[in-house]
Amino acid sequence: MLNDQRRDSKESLPFIGTEEAETVDRYTSLGTGKRSLNSPKIALAAVTGLLLGLGTGLTLALLLQTHLRCQASTLCVCRQEETSPLLDDITIKYHEQTFNGSFVHRTIYRQDASPTVDAAWDALGVNFVGVLISREQASRHSIPQHWAHMPQEYGGQYVVNAQVHHHLHCLDLLRKGLYFNIDYYRSLGKGAFKNRPAVLKAHITHCLDSLRQLLMCNADVGVAGWIWVRNTPTSEPFLFPDFNSAVHQCRNFDEINDWAERNQIMYSPLGTVEFEPPRLGERIPVGLP
């Protein structure tokens, strides 16, 4: 009986020669696990395939991470600005930066009032005049049509200011209004300080509340820890906030600032701006907003 079974098995492969039969036996035996890794070539192929798979997976993961980071940056800009004509010319980039939060080591921006300090703030664009935006840009970026613009014969451009420079202007005015600076600027009698006290107060408090809203809108969820410090090598240590520890994702302010400076109205061919008067019958609100 056993011999008959062996004979039937050989007869079931009538068209397979000796070499082909060995090949069939070799690969069918892989399923039984008897010779699955006995071949060096198979082991090498398995290791090579594994390494290639890992390499491909890591590459795809890095590409996906970069793509998502770029998407997040773009989404951040779109959500905060909705639309801005500045983005027609400027590509927003981000970089890591640790803030200088020193309590006692003063940067130029926090020193007592002087021409040198004023020059440092001026370089931040706090006194930039507006830039011209074409009517096509205004339409594309949903700029309100009731905003003042130039006469049609001169192109009908809108005059706008980058919000960052308004915010910095406000911060600069708060600096000038500090108790240890205000007498200096009152004596100069320039800018906001040539106005009567009630107008100056309205200007300063407008700036104060504008910055409050800006900070709340862009709520910083970073954290500041505490560290042990001492005033002298022998004094007792005490706790103090570490304002220098947080790393922020910052935009390319210098590029934005340079663009706004280059495109100021004073550098345009027109030199000055004469706004088109309101149309007959146009509704004009009463009082300051």
Automatic annotation (TrEMBL):
Pfam families (UniProt xref): UstYa
Transmembrane segments annotated in the record for this chain: 42-64
InterPro entries for the chain: UstYa-like
Record keywords, A-Z: Membrane, Transmembrane, Transmembrane helix
Cited PANTHER family: TAT PATHWAY SIGNAL SEQUENCE, YALI0B05434P
Membership in a protein family: Belongs to the ustYa family.
Name of the protein described by the UniProt record: Tat pathway signal sequence
Keyword Methyltransferase tagged: no
BP-aspect Gene Ontology terms: mycotoxin biosynthetic process
